[in-house]
Design goal:
Blueprint (H helix, E strand, L loop, with lengths): L5 H13 L4 H8 L4 H13 L6
Helix pairs in contact: 1-2
Length: 53
């Protein structure tokens, strides 16, 4: 299983947003990761507490 940097994860999530929420388009544009991995990163982002600072 490949290991991704935090920067790669951030860029992948941003690319999904740029692609109108399309995981498939983001995967094609980036060439990584798998659908399952990208969906997991999106779920982790959505579950993260919002900072009030």
């Amino acid at each position: 299983m490949p290991s991704y940097t935090e920067e790669q994860k951030r860029r992948a999530v941003e690319t999904v947003e740029e692609c109108g929420g399309s995981v498939t388009r983001a995967m094609r544009k980036l060439g990584y990761p798998t659908r399952q991995t990208l969906c997991r990163w999106l779920n982790q982002r959505d579950a993260s507490p919002i900072s009030t600072k």
